[in-house]
Amino acid sequence: MTDPLPIVLVPGLLCTPRLYAEQLPYLWTFGPVTIADHRRDADVESIARRILASAPPRFALVGLSMGGYLANTITRLAPERVERLALLSSGARADTPEATERRKKQIALTEAGRFREIPDLLMPLFLHERRQSDAGLQRIVRSMATETGPEAFVRQLRALMSRPDARPFLPMFRCKTLVLVGADDTLTPPELSREIASLIPDSRLVVVPECGHLSTLEQPEAVTNALVDWLKA
């Protein structure tokens, strides 16, 4: 049996530990699991440094969406500590003008006291079109929004808006990397994951059929199998 490898999971925008609930029973068999808190700072480097301050000396790192942007930053800041890297439903580019404009509108809505409307606005981006009416998934998304709260949501949006382009750093990553994306992800389309996989030398790309953005919730078995294979490799 190999030595336990600690695993750090980083949730996405407006997401909490619930995002990885289906994967936890399998991941903990490889080593102690930590869910990172990404709610307390308004720029990606500050969030990454806060996560590193409480992380084990060496660990496997998993990030979905915003968590993937943060995982890229963590790996850039401390490459000697990240033994394995998994980037789910993510990208490496800076925010597009269209995305920034959308985020500014969400900030304005939230600061106007209308945070309760945010989950319904994001649902079409978060979930596959065939699952947007799934009551169970809707409950999870709304619960995660409540747990995140409006102030942390605004900080997360500001961090995403100001994040740098990570592509120049990816060829320097030397850890075994899993890049996973839903085939029907409209928020971070598969071509962004293909770009990441083409830039990181020791990477494997997995495209999950019939899957939107929140892959860990929509296709939990497929994502879990890919993570287990990545940890065993």
Structure description:
The protein is an alpha/beta fold. The protein has one domain: Rossmann fold. The protein is 45% helix and 14% strand. The protein has 10 helices and 6 strands. Strands 2-1-3-4-5-6 form a 6-stranded parallel beta sheet, sandwiched between helices. Helix 8 links the parallel strand 5 and strand 6. The radius of gyration is 16 Å and the shape is globular. The model has no long low-confidence stretch (mean pLDDT 97).
**Overall pLDDT confidence:** 97
> In what order do the strands lie side by side in the largest sheet?
2-1-3-4-5-6
- Identify the overall geometry: globular
How many strand elements? 6
**Portion of residues within helices:** 40-55%
Please count the helical segments: 10
CATH class equals Alpha Beta
Instruction: Domain count, please report it.
Output: 1
Distance between the termini: 13 Å
Strand content: 5-15%
Derived from helix and strand composition plus strand pairing, the structural class reads alpha/beta
**CATH superfamily (homologous) name:** Alpha/Beta hydrolase fold, catalytic domain
Uncertain ranges: none
Second CATH tier, the architecture: 3-Layer(aba) Sandwich
Task: Specify Rg, calculated over alpha carbons.
Answer: 16 Å
Topology:
Layout: E1 7-10, H1 24-27, E2 33-35, H2 44-54, E3 59-64, H3 66-77, E4 82-88, H4 97-111, H5 118-126, H6 135-148, H7 150-161, E5 176-182, H8 190-199, E6 203-208, H9 215-218, H10 220-232
Parallel strand pairs: 1-2, 1-3, 3-4, 4-5, 5-6
